[in-house]
Design a protein that fits this description.
mainly alpha; 76 residues; rod-shaped
């Protein structure tokens, strides 16, 4: 039972770490694609800004989906 508990805990920590990594990349894309053009030049906002911003939002949403992979001891 203790080894199962440890295996579940290790799995959950790895899932949380990966979810945080994907979330950080997504937020970085949003920051780079949207906030940077806003601070530099308002006319630099175009279709590519929207594409990269949506990609960042998609990665952020995927990080929430990844968290659904967390396990409990009764669901291995």
């Amino acid at each position: 039972m203790a080894s199962l508990r440890r295996a579940v805990a290790v799995h959950n920590e790895r899932v949380k770490l990966f979810s945080g990594f994907v979330n950080a990349i997504g937020l970085g894309l949003i920051g780079f694609a949207v906030l940077r053009p806003l601070t530099e030049d308002m006319t630099a906002i175009g279709a590519i800004t929207a594409v990269w911003g949506l990609a960042g939002l998609f990665l952020h949403a995927i990080s929430h989906y990844i968290l659904a992979m967390l396990r409990t001891e009764d669901r291995t």
